[in-house]
Design a protein that fits this description.
Blueprint lengths: L7 E6 L28 H12 L3 E6 L3 H10 L10 E6 L4 H16 L3 E6 L3 E2 L2 H18 L3 E6 L10 E3 L9 E4 L1 E3 L4 H10 L2 E11 H11 L1 H12 L2 E3 L2 E3 L2 H4 L7 H4 L7 E6 L4 E2 L4 H7 L8 E2 L3 E4 L5 E4 L5 E4 L4 E5 L4 E5 L4 H9 L5 H4 L3 E4 L2 E8 L3 E8 L3 E2 L2 E3 L3 E9 L2 E5 L2 E5 L4 E4 L5 E5 L6 E9 L8 E4 L6
């Protein structure tokens, strides 16, 4: 049993969703997915780990993910803590980890937290006790040290080029704090191989512990202009519902850089603790997920609706709700989504390679899932053709869509489950199950679910020439969206 710390636990909730594409995408990156079949997403596990350390949590997140975050917090019974013990700051545009670290330090300074634990939301730690023990050792170490910055190191299992490397001091031991000789950010393959062979370096996990005063001093020394910009954006933040939103006009002027490049490589003295046997992984490839999960006798990881004969060492994820039939194949990674199917050879990170080739195209499926979250519920795109689009929309109890107008499309709504209260050009109409209504172009409209417990589910058929989400003119909105 650990005594909770008064440290501010600051969690970075960003990411572009590219490394596990197409399972993970920009609209729904990997931290919001249950990657290890535990029943919890990586984000939720990180939140629960943070709460074991401290009652004071700060999430620094992408503005576009705000409703996903709220939904996943509510799913682990933390809704009553949002805005009290869980603070959420939204970045209008991603500016990498340096800006996030500055924001965390500024928040800590403003709210009386001397120390900050900064950690990503997209990593898994299987042995939580080792991490908690390491944190409390670090916290105790800083009782005497009073200032500085520390990084959590991971014992390398390969010559990975995607991580920063920490050169160990000669007398460093596992799970003990030491002063590192040098920090190197993402070396090339040849240098990484030397580090791995010599057993002289650790991976930088991206988890940092620092005193805000020391950190801000170093940022002022190395990144004074960036510090001024981020500080001004923070000071001019706007409070809206559960969120504090950074000033976009100011924040967009900040330089995008990592804390590793901007600060860590320039420090003469870096503290480090090696997290040995913690089961740490950033789950940055399908190979890493494959290594983590239980396999059958033929080395396969097989999802539902898979029918196979004589397959070996395959990793198959099926989110398509369609059967996949395989015969006499091996060493494949198959990711079947509702809108994309990828088939690549294991060990080559083929999905990431294909994403890099395709990302310059304008296909919506490159960045966006077929579903999206909203404060009132969610929707799923079922079919889109040149002159029509079909969605299934779910409205949560006591929730409603905004009162809005579309200039370029009309709509048909068909209730599948629940009761919908439609407001159409200021008239109220009740829609029961199996009933429908036509929403003409340019008409004011919204739908309300007044039920306390039951979802309202309806099919929306859009007809017209353009179906973008920017063809929404909101007249009024319960959730204060622009």
């Amino acid at each position: 049993m650990f005594i909770k710390s008064q440290t501010l636990v600051s969690i970075m909730v960003g990411g572009s969703g590219t490394r596990l594409w197409p399972l993970s995408r920009e609209s729904f990156p990997k931290q919001f997915i249950d990657l290890d079949n535990s029943g919890l997403t990586i984000f939720q596990k990180t939140i629960l780990r943070g709460r074991e350390i401290s009652d004071n949590l700060l999430l620094i997140a992408n503005f576009n993910h705000r409703f996903i975050i709220l939904e996943q917090l509510r799913a682990i019974y933390l809704d009553d803590e949002v805005g009290k013990k869980i603070n959420i700051i939204l970045e209008p545009i991603g500016k990498n980890t340096l800006a996030v670290a500055i924001i965390a330090a500024l928040f800590a300074k403003k709210n009386g937290f001397d120390r900050v634990l900064l950690m990503p939301s997209d990593q898994i730690i299987q042995n939580n006790e080792i991490f908690l023990t390491a944190f409390h050792d670090v916290n105790k170490f800083f009782d005497d040290k009073k200032s500085g910055i520390l990084t959590f190191g991971i014992t390398p299992t390969s010559s990975h080029t995607g991580y920063g490397y920490i050169e160990k001091s000669d007398n460093s031991n596992q799970n003990e704090i030491f002063y590192a000789k040098k920090f190197t950010e993402k070396p090339n393959k040849e240098i990484a191989q030397v580090y791995f062979n010599n057993k002289t370096h650790l991976w930088n996990s991206g988890i940092f512990f620092f005193c805000h005063e020391f950190f801000l001093q170093k940022v002022a020394e190395f990144e004074s202009e960036n510090l001024t910009i981020v500080s001004n954006a923070f000071d001019k933040s706007e409070k809206k519902h559960e969120f504090l939103i950074l000033n976009e006009a100011i924040f967009q002027e900040a330089r995008s850089d990592s804390i590793d490049f901007a600060i860590m490589q320039k420090l003469d003295e870096i503290c480090c603790i090696e997290l040995a046997n913690s089961g740490w992984s950033d789950l940055g490839s399908f190979d890493q997920i494959y290594d983590l999960l239980e396999k059958d006798n033929d080395g396969n990881i097989i999802d539902d609706l898979i029918y196979s004969e004589s397959i070996k060492n395959c990793h198959i994820i099926n989110k398509s709700e369609k059967p996949i039939i395989l015969n006499e194949v091996e060493d494949l990674v198959i990711i079947a989504m509702k809108d994309i199917i990828t088939i690549t050879k294991k060990g080559v990170d083929g999905n990431k390679i294909m994403f890099d080739k395709l990302k310059s195209n304008s296909f919506s499926w490159i960045k966006n899932q077929v579903f999206d979250k909203r404060p009132w519920g969610d929707y799923e795109n079922i079919l889109e053709k040149e002159n029509f689009k079909i969605k299934i929309i779910t409205v949560k109890p006591n929730s409603e869509l905004s009162y809005q107008i579309h200039k370029q499309r009309s709509e048909h709504w068909i209730v599948i489950s629940g009761i919908g209260i439609v407001i159409l050009d200021d008239k109220q109409i009740t829609l029961l199950e199996n009933e429908s209504i036509y929403i003409p172009q340019h008409s004011k409209h919204k739908i309300i679910n007044k039920n306390n417990t039951q979802d309202l589910i309806f099919v929306e058929i859009q007809c017209g020439s353009y179906f973008g989400e920017d063809d929404i003119i909101r007249i009024n909105d319960k959730y204060s969206r622009n």
